[in-house]
Design a protein that fits this description.
Helix 5 links the parallel strand 1 and strand 2. This protein has two domains: 83 residues; 143 residues, HUPs (Rossmann fold), CATH 3.40.50. Helices cover 46% and strands 10% of the residues. Helix 1 packs across helix 2 and helix 4 packs parallel to helix 9.
C-alpha cells in the first residue's frame, strides 16, 4: 500500500513535476543546455496533465482501448465486479459510507444493470486490508442489496488486495465460474483488469463503469485542478501497473505478487 502511494506520487503530474524542478534547480550550474531544454519540455507536459484538457485526453486514450471488447447487450455470462477501494476503515458490514468513490460508482451502476435481470449471477471481488475488519466486497454487497439486488444472487470474494489477485482468487472460487464472464470495473481500470483475468484463464468481455472521458466546455479546462491531477495519476497508474503485469511470467498462481503491488 505504501509502495503504491509512493509510486503514484512519483508518476503524478504534481509529484513528478516537483521532483523534476528540484533536480533542475540542484543541477543548474552543471547541467548541459540540452538537459535544461528537455526538463523544461517535461515541465510543460506535467502542467498540461494537471489540467482537465490533459487529463481528459489521457482518459480518452485509455478508455478507447476497450471499445472492441465491450460485452454484447444480450450476453448472459456471470458478472464479476471489482472493488474500488475504501476511503476509510469501515466500522462494520453496514458502514457502506466507508466505500471509496470508485467503489460506490461501480456498485450503483452494477445494481442498476442487475435490476433489469434480477437473476443475474454476480460475484464481487475485494478483500480485507490489514487493520480493517470488513472486506470491500462485503460492503459493496450490502449496498447492492439495499439497492434491490437479491442477496441470494450475490457472491463475494474476500481474499484479494490487487487486480491480479482479484483474477486468481475469483478463478479459485468453489463452485467455479465458467471461463466466459463479464467483467465490470471502471473504464480506466478495464484494460489491466482484462489482462489479469485472461492470464487467470477467463474469457472476459468488458462492462465498463464510471467512464471518465468527457467533452471540454470551459476555458478553465486549460488550468490545473486537483481533479485533473487525480485523473491523470489514475491513468498513469494503470499504464505502469499494466507494464508490470505484462512483464510477469504466465502463472496459475498469484503467490509471488508482493503485498500492495499495483
Amino acid at each position: 500500500m505504501l509502495l503504491t502511494r509512493l509510486v503514484d506520487f512519483a508518476i503524478s503530474p504534481l509529484g513528478f513535476g516537483l521532483l523534476l524542478a528540484l533536480l533542475l534547480w540542484r543541477t543548474r550550474r552543471h547541467a548541459p543546455r540540452w538537459l535544461w531544454h528537455l526538463g523544461a519540455a517535461l515541465e510543460v507536459v506535467c502542467f498540461l496533465l494537471a489540467t482537465p484538457f490533459g487529463a481528459q485526453t489521457l482518459a480518452a486514450l485509455q478508455e478507447r482501448r476497450i471499445a472492441a471488447e465491450v460485452c454484447p447487450a444480450a450476453d448472459a455470462a456471470p458478472l464479476v465486479l471489482l472493488a474500488g477501494g475504501l476511503r476509510r476503515a469501515p466500522r462494520d458490514a453496514d458502514d457502506v459510507a466507508a466505500l471509496s468513490e470508485a467503489s460506490l460508482r461501480r456498485t450503483i451502476e452494477t445494481a442498476a444493470r442487475a435490476g433489469a435481470a434480477p437473476a443475474m449471477p454476480l460475484v464481487i471481488s475485494g478483500g480485507v486490508w490489514p487493520g480493517e475488519a470488513v472486506a470491500e466486497s462485503t460492503l459493496m454487497a450490502t449496498l447492492m442489496s439495499r439497492l434491490g439486488v437479491p442477496a441470494a444472487s450475490i457472491r463475494t470474494e474476500t481474499g484479494s488486495h490487487t487486480t491480479w489477485q482479484n483474477a486468481f482468487h475469483v478463478r479459485a472460487l468453489d463452485p467455479p465460474l465458467p471461463a466466459r464472464i463479464r467483467l465490470a470495473t471502471s473504464a480506466v481500470h478495464m484494460p489491466r483488469s482484462l489482462l489479469a483475468f485472461r492470464v487467470a484463464g477467463f474469457e472476459p468481455c468488458a462492462v465498463p463503469i464510471d467512464v471518465r472521458a468527457a467533452r471540454l466546455r470551459y476555458v478553465t479546462d486549460f488550468l490545473p485542478s486537483g481533479g485533473a491531477i487525480a485523473l491523470s495519476t489514475a491513468v498513469l497508474h494503470e499504464w505502469v501497473g499494466e507494464v508490470g503485469y505484462r512483464l510477469r511470467p504466465g502463472s496459475s498462481s498469484d503467490a509471488g505478487l508482493p503485498e500492495g503491488a499495483p
